[in-house]
Design goal:
The complex is a heterodimer of chains A (80) and B (250). In chain A, 60% of the residues lie in helices and 0% in strands. Chain A is mostly helical. In chain A, α1 crosses α2. With 250 residues, chain B is α+β, with helices and mostly antiparallel strands. In chain B, the strands form 2 sheets. Chain B has an 8-stranded mixed β-sheet with strand order 4-11-5-10-9-8-7-6, sandwiched between helices. In chain B, strands 1-2-3 form a 3-stranded antiparallel β-sheet. The chains are: A mainly alpha (80), B alpha+beta (250). At the A-B interface, α2 and α3 of A face β5 of B.
């Protein structure tokens, strides 16, 4: 399941950050993607919400530091 | 708390022409025309929440006359306000807790190796700026002239902590009669988890108490909340920051 999420998230990351070379892993953090700043973070979450038709709580949104954090939330919210 | 924001906004706008502070349809707004503060363009609503004020505000955002950020206090009106904001494409992106402390409750003892001073000279201000730039703005360029202007204003105090010879932590205080608002409290990443920020804030509280300030207020992010609670700050309420989502509103 995680692998599916990673592939789908990778496309979302590439679109939001406009960088086709991005290859994410669960360990990928904002430090490794230059464009992953606080504003783009919100755009990223917004796109993930639209893609999976889910809504992140504010606390979840603020607590995300890595792709792994996003995966954990997706696992709890998305039925696959 | 609101009054302290207004004072801060007014001082900022007087110190730099690229920042304007104005009231628009009941919202007290700070517009940053040229990113003087990267990502720090805020609106603050004084009156909550009349539908027509929001409609005026939304129009102003569309016309780029008002910032696409708004801070709302958590109160009985928030549900209606949030509904209006969501319809316009805003969402909550951050929350702050407003906290305050009476300075007579402070008993300051510095048990760290931190050397703290109030900034009076341009050279000290450069150290203060380097900490704030790295600690709060991810090393983005800050326009320094605004702080040089503020240094001349006796309502503003810049406080900095040095670990050895290295600047390590900083804060800015806005004094308004008997109240001080603490802003931009930050510690450089390599100096975190050493209790420096806590000592810096305690120093400021003690310093202001001696100047006749009886109450200090601040807005805490989640990461700072436990520290301020430990110092003795009490929770007064919460603010939510909403942003109109979209690349065109960055």
């Amino acid at each position: 399941m995680n692998q599916n999420f990673i592939l789908e998230l990778n496309n979302i990351f590439r679109n939001v950050f406009d960088d086709k070379s991005i290859e994410i892993t669960p360990e990928t953090s904002a430090k490794e993607i230059e464009a992953w700043n606080s504003m783009n973070h919100i755009l990223l979450i917004n796109e993930i919400e639209k893609y999976y038709n889910i809504e992140f709580e504010l606390d979840e949104l603020i607590s995300i530091n890595t792709v792994g954090d996003i995966l954990q939330i997706l696992q709890s919210k998305v039925n696959k | 708390m609101e009054e302290n924001h207004s004072v801060f906004f007014d001082l900022l706008s007087k110190a730099n022409n690229n920042i304007c502070s104005y009231k628009h349809g009941g919202f007290y707004s700070l517009m940053d025309k040229k990113n003087v503060f990267p990502k720090l363009t805020l609106c603050y609503n004084e009156l909550l929440p009349k539908k027509q004020y929001f409609q005026e505000y939304f129009r102003a955002v569309e016309q780029k006359e008002a910032a696409p950020y708004i801070i709302l206090a958590e109160n009985e009106n928030l549900i209606l306000a949030e509904k209006l904001l969501k319809q316009e494409g805003f969402r909550a992106v951050e929350s702050w807790t407003t906290m305050s402390l009476f300075t007579n409750q402070v008993n300051y003892v510095n048990s760290t190796d931190l050397h703290i001073l109030t900034v009076y000279r341009a050279e000290e201000l450069q150290h203060w700026l380097s900490v704030v730039q790295q600690g709060l703005f991810n090393s983005s360029n800050l326009e320094t002239t605004i702080f040089e202007q503020l240094l001349l204003n006796n309502k503003i105090q810049f406080i900095i902590g040095f670990a050895g010879n290295e600047p390590a932590c900083a804060l800015l205080a806005v004094l308004n009669e008997s109240t001080a608002g603490l802003y931009m409290i930050t510690t450089l990443p390599r100096f975190r988890k050493k209790g420096y920020a806590s000592h810096l804030v305690n120093y400021a509280l003690n310093h202001f108490a001696q100047k006749g300030i009886t109450r200090c207020v601040l807005q805490s992010t989640r990461s700072g909340y436990d520290m301020y609670k430990h110092i003795g700050f009490q929770t007064d309420g919460r603010f939510f920051i909403y942003w109109k989502i979209g690349k065109e509103y960055m």
